[in-house]
DNA sequence: TGAAATATGATAATAATTATCATATAATAA
DNA sequence: TTATTATATGATAATTATTATCATATTTCA
């Protein structure tokens, strides 16, 4: 029943976004929903290929990319783009658009003085932290809204 | 004078960490300190190669890696490792060790209910956010502390 | 200064990701 | 349901970022 719900919700979410619902997408989404590890594309592929022998790694990559762009999943440590470096040790945060990938800096005193949870304790020695806000930049939001309207009209 | 300070501070920091102070490291560090963009390794290299014609891209990579491992700079979007994906939409944060790269999840109610700054306003539509705490895991901290003691003895 | 340690440059190798394109599947209209 | 159209897939080639290698050069420190 849990599985059923995930499938239904996923199917509905795909419809809303105008995405075809395919075996491969269902499989990848289910697999990712069933684990707490943060698997790589390769790992997802390895996990599924026994059950779906014709599945391609390229499809897994494309599927994950589609999911991420549609907000179904999140991508930790985006690759494919180059790593970016910063010598600015002033605490600052990032506004990252999930569609165009643009990164903007955000300075905010309150956000830079967060109290760290006690639970971290001696398990981890925190030196700094950074908040990544993910969503849509003004430009991509506009495009997104327009598409949504268009879909509702049809 | 500003430049002078940066050089002095950098040199001192290298000494503390037992790193050789080289032309290349100075150049890369100065370049990164002088910009607010978050350049890629390639971009740093392109910027410097006129002034330092013998500089190698491989050196820039190695230098940036060394800086990051020593906490001089930060690396946004770590690559070299695979991207990792997560279908868990429950707000959670990350504890990332800057030495061994291990990522652990952190759940904390307070950290997941942060008020967003007004300044963001209509410029960006935030859908979610994630805090990356960077520092040393227990194991790497131990090794780090031991090395420090050793260096002070010498 | 001179020996030992460390870093660099050139380049090869690797690993992750993306592009291409013919085929297959899904969505939609009749 | 079936035909048509749009979209996704699989196989594989190509690309891109990054790391490894190793001989040479530079730093460090006694």
Kindly summarize this structure in a few lines:
The first copy, chain A, has 5 helices and 5 strands; from the N terminus they run ααααβββββα. Chain A has 154 residues and is an alpha+beta fold.
Q: How does this structure look, described?
A:
Two copies of one chain form a homodimer. The first copy, chain A, is α+β, with helices and mostly antiparallel strands and 154 residues long. Chain A is built from five helices and five strands, in the order H-H-H-H-E-E-E-E-E-H. Chain A has a three-stranded mixed sheet. Chain A is globular, with a radius of gyration of 19 Å. The two termini of chain A are 32 Å apart. At the A-B interface, helix 2, helix 3, helix 4, strand 1 and strand 2 of A face helix 2, helix 3, helix 4, strand 1 and strand 2 of B. Strand 5 (124-137) of chain A pairs antiparallel with strand 5 of chain B, so a sheet runs across the interface. The structure holds a DNA duplex (30 and 30 nucleotides).
């Amino acid at each position: 029943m849990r599985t059923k719900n995930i499938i239904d919700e996923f199917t509905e979410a795909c419809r809303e976004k105008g995405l075809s619902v395919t075996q491969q997408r269902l499989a990848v989404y289910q697999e990712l929903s069933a684990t707490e590890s943060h698997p790589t594309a390769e790992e997802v592929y390895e996990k599924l290929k026994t059950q779906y022998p014709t599945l391609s790694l390229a499809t897994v990559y494309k599927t994950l990319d589609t999911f991420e762009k549609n907000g179904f999943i999140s991508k930790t440590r985006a690759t494919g783009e180059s790593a970016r470096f910063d010598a600015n040790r002033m605490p600052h945060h990032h506004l990252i658009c999930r569609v165009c990938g643009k990164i903007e800096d955000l300075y905010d005193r309150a956000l830079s003085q967060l109290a760290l949870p006690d639970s971290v304790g001696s398990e981890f020695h925190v030196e700094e932290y950074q908040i990544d806000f993910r969503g849509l930049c003004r430009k991509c939001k506009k495009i997104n809204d327009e598409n949504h309207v268009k879909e509702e009209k049809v």
